[in-house]
Amino acid sequence: MLQRSSIWKTLFLPLVFVLSICSCVSSFAQLSGTYTVGVGGDFPSIDSAFQKLSMDGVAGAVTFTLTDTAYVAPGKPLKNLRPATPRHAIIGGEREELSLPSAYEFDLPTDGIPALTLAGPIVGASATNRITFRPAAGRAVKIVGNGAWVIRLLDASYFTFDGINSGGTSLRLQAIAGNGLQIEGNSDNVIVQDTQIGTPSFSAILLQSAANGIPDSTLVQRNTVDSYSFNGFFGVNLAVGTGVSRGLRLSNNNFGTATDSIAQAGIVVQHTDGAWINNNTVRHLRRAGDTFGIGAITRHFRTRIWNNKIFDVRLHGTTGGILRGIRLFGTLGDTTRSAIYNNMIFDLDYASTGTATGSSIRSIQHTDLILDTIAYNSIWLTGASIASVPN
How far is CA 19 from CA 9, 12, 14, 24, in A? Predict the structure, then answer.
């Protein structure tokens, strides 16, 4: 005959074990639907939502709504911050300054991930199972980071960063030091739209290669970049490997504002194939050194640049340099087949805010490119230098 204690162990302990297993299943379930991120929400922080996505993936389309007004993106301070080393190349017989992704170089911390990262691949993510982050209705949200970037997508595809809610554009990424949104590796089909980004001396949006590849099919639209960001958009920074990014689209963005400037360039594309750059406004550029509105440089193929407006570009300070509306050069021997048309370029000047000597102004500079078309651009330059106007 079983004792009462034996009966309790026989009947109830298995049940407790089963219940304990069941209580853990939900923590491993794939996500689908809408979740809140913030105090009292489904996820207390963006980082916790990223960890869940990385671990378990998605079973359907997922939307994360940001309910707090301010978020601090975890990041480790940059080590050994120092001015970036200039890079040069001989292009068309001239020594040209190559574009840099930032004004500073630094050493990444070696003790773990240096800043907020969504590490993929995300299981289940697809064209129909897209992952979206946006502010909650009526919220003006700011995400501040002090690491190497505010947010990085690493091998994370089908991600949308959307600043729209019922109050309009209400999402801002602000870097203390570092890039804004870094899209890296095999992070394909990413959309960044209706977001404000400020990254003093760094790139607001950076595309970068990694061990698993280069981002393809990136869409950047209706964003505003300010706060003396070094570049509004820079991509691809070929950190490792070779190759090109395909299907890049940049449209209807504002790089610089009437009261807030950009440093080196509004848009820099390199190592791309089939990039489209249209209907963007690039203004209020200020830098002691070479500056340009839009650049397609080094390796690039079938680039289309049209209906953009570039103006209020100034050489700042006493350092000589070249001001360009649009800067184009390729890798010697590449057949680029680019088309540059219907752009407006005006108000490029170095005399009004600087005392630099040996400077020049060029509306569109075109070097070492094959089978390109430049047509129907409207150009008006100011300043004392002889203009180069290939029109």
Answer: 15, 11, 9, 9
CA-based nearest residue to 248, from 229, 225, 224, 267: 267
Euclidean distance between CA atoms 313 and 223, whole angstroms: 20
Torsion angles phi and psi, residue 76, rounded to 5? -100, 135
Task: Name the more confident of 28 and 163.
Answer: 163
CA dihedral 108, 113, 114, 119 (to 10 degrees): 110
166: exposed, middle or buried (C-beta count within 10 Å: 0-12, 13-18, 19+)?
Answer: exposed
pLDDT (tens digit per residue) in 206-255: 999 999 999 999 999 999 999 888 899 998 988 888 889 999 999 999 99
pLDDT in tens, 21-49: 333 335 568 999 999 999 999 999 999 99
Give yes or no for a contact between 64 and 47, defined as CB atoms under 8 angstroms apart: no
Compute the radius of gyration of the chain from its Cα atoms: 24
Query: Closest Cα partner for 155 from 121, 182, 130, 179?
Result: 121
Write down the pLDDT at residue 60.
96
What is the spatial distance between Cα 179 and Cα 149, in angstroms, rounded to a whole number? 4
**How far apart are alpha carbons 260 and 174 in whole angstroms?**
14
For 173-183, what is the mean pLDDT? 93
Average pLDDT, the chain: 84
Q: Name which residue leads in pLDDT, 320 or 1.
A: 320
Q: Which residues, in sequence order, are CB contacts of 184 under 8 Å at separation 6+? A: 152, 153, 154, 155, 206, 207, 208, 209, 210, 215
**Residues 93-107: tens digit of each pLDDT:** 666 667 777 777 777
Burial class (CB in 10 A: 0-12, 13-18, 19+), 273: middle
Strands 229-237, 203-208: pairing kind: parallel
Distance CA 344, CA 72 (A): 39
Q: Count Cβ atoms below 10 Å from residue 292 Cβ, excluding itself.
A: 29
CB hemisphere CA count around 187 (13 angstroms): 28
The dihedrals phi and psi of 59, each to the nearest 5 degrees, come to: -115, 5
Q: How far apart are CA 124 and CA 133, in angstroms?
A: 17
